[in-house]
Design a protein that fits this description.
The complex is a heterodimer of chains A (246) and B (333). Chain A has a six-stranded mixed beta sheet, with helices on both faces. Chain A has a four-stranded antiparallel beta sheet with strand order 2-1-4-5, covered by helices on one side. Chain A has 246 residues and is α/β, with parallel strands linked by helices. Chain A has nine helices and ten strands.
Chain lengths: 246, 333
C-alpha cells in the first residue's frame, strides 16, 4: 500500500468479538483515512455488520481497540460515539415509525449535534433537501416504501453531523435507477469531505464510489487495497464469489 | 454553493388547538370558582375526577410517549401516601406533606430506575408490579401502619370539613393543571422527541446520539412523582391509609383503561379516557360486581371497534389529532 501521511480518522486494531463459544470477529484490523471512501465486501456471515456494530458501539467488543480521530472509544456508548461524529445506518431500516420523516431527522439532529430546536429544524431541512426527501417531510414514516426508508436511514445518520458515516447495505432491494440516485448522493457526501465506509453486495454500485476495498470472510480481513486488485485476489474469489482458485 | 438557501421552520399551533386551549382555560376558570355554588358531593366527585386525569396523563407519559409499560405505578401512590403518613406523624402539617411525601416517592423511583429501566417490555412490566408488592409488604411491617389495618391521618381532622374539602379541591385543580402543562412542555421539547424515538426503536435511538437511559429515567421519575402526588391528594380526601388499597394493582388497571380507551400516545386521549372512566364509575358504581363487568365490556368494545380510543373518532374521519405533538415542517426559499 502506498504511504499516506494523514492519520486514520477511524482505526480498529485486533478487534475480537465472541458470543459465548462462537467467535464472530478474529483480530480484525481496520482503518479509514480522513475523506476516504472504503467498501467492505464478503459473503454472508463474514462479520461485516458485526464489525459495524463494534465500531458504532452497539455492543462491547471482547478485545481490541477502536480510535476515532485519535480518541479511544473503549467504554463509550453508541450514543456518545454518534455525538463524537460516527454515524451508522442499519441493513434493515429502523425508522422511528410513530414519527414523521421530518421528526425522525429532527430528533437525530437535536441529539447527535446537540442542536437547539431552530438549528435542528434547519439541519433537518438541509438533509432532507440533499437526500431528495423534502416532499415527504411531513409524511408518517410508517407509510414509506423501501427506497424511502433507506434514504431516511442515510438522512437520519447525516442529520447527526457525522465526520464518518457507516452505511450497511443501503443498496439492497433497490432498482437500478434508485441505486443510481443513492450512488450520486453518497458521492456528493464524499466530495463534501465526509468519510464513508460502505458494506455492499452490489459491487458495481460500490465500485463507483470507493477507492479502497476490504474483503472479509469468517470474521477475518482477507484482503484490502485497490478494489480491482482485491476482487482479483484468489482467496477473495474463492470466499466471495464461490469459485475455487486455479 | 449553487443550491438555494433553505429556510425552514416548524408550523405554529393549528387554529383548532388554539381554540381547544382557550376553551380549556375558560373551563379551568369556571372550575376554580365552582365550589362557591356547588354541593359538597359535587366538589368531592370533581376532586376525584382531577386525580383520575392526573393518573391517566402520567401513565400516558410513561407508556404512550416513552414506551415504558409499567404495571407498578401503585408503588408510588402507596409510597407517597406512606411518606405523607410518616411526615405528619413526625409533626409536619398535612398539606405540605402531600407534596413532600410525593417527592420522597420520587427519590425511591430514582433509585428503582437504575434496576427496572435495564429491563425491557414484559420484564419491565412484571418487575414494576413485583417491586410494588414487595414495598407494600415492607410498609405493612411498620408498627404505625399495623399490617393491613392501616392508619388515619387524624391531623386532617383539625381542619373544618368544608375548609379541608375546598383546599384539597383547589390543590387538585392546580396540581392537575400544572401537571398537564408540564407534560405538554416536556413532550414538545427535546425530552419528548427523544422519548418518542426510544418508544419506537431504542437501539436506533441510541445510534442517533440519544442517551436512552437518561431520557427514560427522567420520564420515569417525573411520572412517578406525578402518580405519587395524585395519590397523596387522594389520600388527603380519603384520610385512611391502608397498604392494600394504596398499593393495589387496581390503580394501574385504572390508568391502563383510561389511557387505552382514550387513545394511547395522544395528548388529549387519556383526559377523555378519564372522563369516560369517571362516568362509568358513576353509572355502574352502585351495581357491585356489575360495575367491573361494565368497565370490562366497554374495554372489549373499544378494543374491537375503536382500537385507537376516543381520539380514533377524529382520526378515522381523516381529521388532525387534537393537541397533537406532531411537528410539521414548513419551508420557504
Amino acid at each position: 500500500m502506498s504511504a499516506n501521511s494523514s492519520e486514520p480518522i477511524l482505526r480498529a486494531v485486533g478487534v475480537n468479538k465472541s458470543y459465548g463459544a462462537l467467535k464472530v470477529l478474529h483480530g480484525v484490523d481496520f482503518h479509514v483515512l480522513q475523506g476516504e471512501a472504503v467498501g467492505i465486501v464478503g459473503p454472508n456471515g463474514a462479520g461485516k455488520t458485526t464489525l459495524f456494530g463494534a465500531l458504532a458501539g452497539s455492543f462491547p467488543i471482547t478485545s481490541g481497540t477502536i480510535h476515532l480521530q485519535g480518541a479511544d472509544l473503549g467504554g463509550t456508548s453508541a450514543a456518545e460515539r454518534c455525538r463524537m461524529g460516527l454515524a451508522r445506518t442499519y441493513q434493515v431500516p429502523r425508522p422511528f415509525l410513530g414519527m414523521t420523516v421530518f421528526e425522525n431527522v429532527y430528533v437525530s439532529a437535536m441529539s447527535g449535534m446537540g442542536a437547539n430546536s431552530a438549528r435542528a429544524t434547519q439541519k433537518a431541512a438541509e438533509v432532507l433537501e440533499m437526500s431528495g426527501m423534502m416532499p415527504l417531510a411531513n409524511r408518517p414514516t410508517a407509510a414509506l416504501g423501501l427506497l424511502d426508508r433507506k434514504r431516511l436511514e442515510v438522512a437520519r445518520a447525516l442529520a447527526t453531523g457525522p465526520s464518518v458515516i457507516l452505511l450497511d447495505e443501503i443498496g439492497g432491494g433497490l432498482t437500478e435507477a434508485e441505486l443510481t440516485e443513492l450512488v450520486d448522493l453518497i458521492r456528493a457526501l464524499q466530495s463534501g469531505g465526509m468519510t464513508v465506509v460502505w458494506i455492499e453486495h452490489i459491487l458495481h454500485a460500490l465500485l463507483r464510489v470507493v477507492t479502497r476495498l476490504v474483503c472479509m470472510a469468517e470474521g477475518r480481513v482477507l484482503a484490502q487495497g485497490d478494489p480491482r486488485e482485491v476482487m482479483a485476489h484468489p482467496e477473495v474469489q474463492a470466499a466471495y464469489l464461490g469459485s475455487s482458485p486455479e | 454553493m449553487t443550491k438555494a438557501q433553505i429556510v425552514a421552520h416548524i408550523l405554529p399551533m393549528p387554529a383548532q388547538d388554539r381554540r381547544i386551549l382557550i376553551a380549556a382555560l375558560a373551563l379551568l376558570a369556571v372550575l376554580a370558582v365552582l365550589p362557591l355554588m356547588a354541593s359538597a358531593l359535587v366538589v368531592d366527585k370533581l376532586t376525584y375526577l382531577f386525580i383520575l386525569i392526573m393518573f391517566a396523563a402520567m401513565w400516558n407519559l410513561l407508556a404512550g410517549y416513552a414506551g415504558l409499560v409499567s404495571v407498578g405505578q401503585q408503588a408510588f401512590i402507596g409510597l407517597g401516601g406512606y411518606a405523607m403518613v410518616r411526615m405528619v406523624e413526625a409533626g409536619l402539617p398535612p398539606f405540605p406533606a402531600i407534596f413532600l411525601g410525593a417527592l420522597a416517592a420520587g427519590v425511591v423511583a430514582w433509585i428503582m430506575s437504575w434496576f427496572v429501566l435495564r429491563m425491557k417490555a414484559g420484564e419491565f412490566a412484571i418487575a414494576t408490579w413485583v417491586i410494588a408488592e414487595a414495598i407494600r409488604s415492607m410498609v405493612s411491617f411498620d408498627p404505625l401502619i399495623q399490617g393491613e389495618t392501616g392508619t388515619s391521618i387524624t391531623a386532617l381532622n383539625a381542619y373544618a370539613p368544608e375548609m379541608r374539602r375546598l383546599t384539597i379541591y383547589l390543590l387538585s385543580l392546580v396540581t392537575m393543571t400544572l401537571m398537564i402543562w408540564g407534560a405538554w412542555a416536556l413532550l414538545h421539547g427535546r425530552t419528548g422527541a427523544q422519548a418518542q424515538a426510544i418508544r419506537d426503536d431504542e437501539e436506533a435511538a441510541e445510534s442517533v446520539g440519544i442517551t436512552t437511559f437518561a431520557v427514560k429515567q427522567r420520564i420515569y421519575v417525573l411520572a412517578s412523582i406525578g402518580c405519587a402526588v395524585a395519590g397523596t391528594l387522594w389520600l388527603a380526601s380519603a384520610i385512611t391509609f391502608q397498604p392494600r388499597t394504596s398499593f393495589g394493582v387496581q390503580w394501574s388497571v385504572f390508568m391502563l383503561f383510561m389511557v387505552l380507551v382514550g387513545g394511547i400516545g395522544t395528548f388529549i386521549g387519556p383526559i377523555l379516557g378519564a372522563l369516560l372512566f369517571f362516568a362509568l364509575q358513576e353509572i355502574f358504581g352502585d351495581f357491585g360486581a356489575w360495575y367491573m363487568a361494565g368497565v370490562g365490556i366497554v374495554a372489549i368494545l373499544f378494543a374491537l371497534y375503536l382500537p385507537n380510543g376516543i381520539v380514533g373518532l377524529w382520526l378515522n374521519k381523516g381529521r388532525a389529532e387534537p393537541l397533537s405533538m406532531r411537528k410539521l415542517l414548513s419551508q420557504d426559499r
